[in-house]
UniProtKB/TrEMBL annotation:
Protein name: Transposase
Domain of life assignment: Bacteria
């Protein structure tokens, strides 16, 4: 097990995040997923977050990422959802037509710390998303 560190602490903070499209609309394809991932990776450094795994199904994305003790997870998630929603609707107009109103993401999300499960099991779960 490899630990992260900063000036004053050693830590390992893994999170499994699931973000769902509003009304479970099936709008995510490989291109949109890749763009969503790019946006995530662009925002990550500003919040001391490192992406470890990414995958999607047609109506949601799964992420495995690491944070640090000073990471404000809720602010990061809100910033990501806001920026990605705006950019995806602008860059993929077809998506906007498939959604009701202006919403891309559901207001809710699932965030789980992965301390109780070996990280390899979570990683495999995310890798296997969308393979039904």
């Amino acid at each position: 097990m490899e630990l992260d560190s900063n000036n004053h602490s050693v830590f390992l903070l893994n999170y499994h995040l699931v973000l769902v499209i509003k009304y479970r609309r099936k709008v995510i394809d490989n291109n949109i997923s890749s763009r969503l991932k790019e946006i995530f990776e662009y925002i990550c450094p500003k919040y001391n977050i490192t992406l470890d795994e990414w995958n999607h199904d047609k109506d949601h994305v799964h992420l495995l990422f690491r944070g640090s003790p000073n990471t404000d997870i809720s602010k990061f998630i809100n910033a990501y959802k806001s920026a990605s929603s705006r950019l995806i609707k602008k860059e993929y107009p077809i998506v906007k037509k498939q959604l009701w109103k202006e919403y891309f993401w559901s207001r809710s999300y699932c965030l789980i710390t992965t301390g109780g499960v070996p990280i390899d099991i979570v990683r495999k779960y995310i890798e296997n998303q969308g393979m039904k």
